[in-house]
């Protein structure tokens, strides 16, 4: 059975990609530094999330196509190429009631919310890579479109992959 993980993109990365017109493009890969350390492997599901103003956003989901690649990219030295990718959506909010139900396998078992604003996430609660429990992954899946992209991809000069 594949493992499920969340991976946090900084809000400035989301804004940069949105400004570049990447809204709606398939989420076909991402870079970082902690994928190998967390044990990601082919077939695992990766949910890209962001904390924007205390609100969790679900950018998209992809299934890891192959092993973690050692590849310098704008986000780090490791790269994951995806398949069965959802479109990127920088405006897909995760309702606070759903975010409060998410549970993780390691570290803190749930997300942290601000004591003075219980509907808002604390700034550091979405760590770089966190392993989700299967039921929690299902909660995120309910927020995603059913149409997936599994087309062939190619690496572009900016380090991203495209059809």
| Helix/strand order, N-terminal first | EHEEEEEHEHEE
Morphology call: globular
| Helix proportion | 10-25%
Q: How many extended strands?
A: 9
Judged by helices, strands and strand pairing, the structural class is alpha+beta
What value does the average pLDDT take? 88
Intertermini distance: 28 Å
Q: Helix count?
A: 3
Low-confidence parts lasting 5 or more residues at pLDDT below 50? 151-163
In percent, how much strand structure appears in the residues?
25-35%
Radius of gyration: 15 Å
Biggest sheet, open or closed, and with what strands and sense?
Answer: 7 strands, mixed
General description of the model:
- With 163 residues, the protein is an alpha+beta fold.
- The chain is built from three helices and nine strands, in the order E-H-E-E-E-E-E-H-E-H-E-E.
- The longest helix has 9 residues, at 11-19.
- The two termini are 28 Å apart.
- Strands 1, 2, 3, 4, 5, 6 and 7 form a seven-stranded mixed beta sheet that branches.
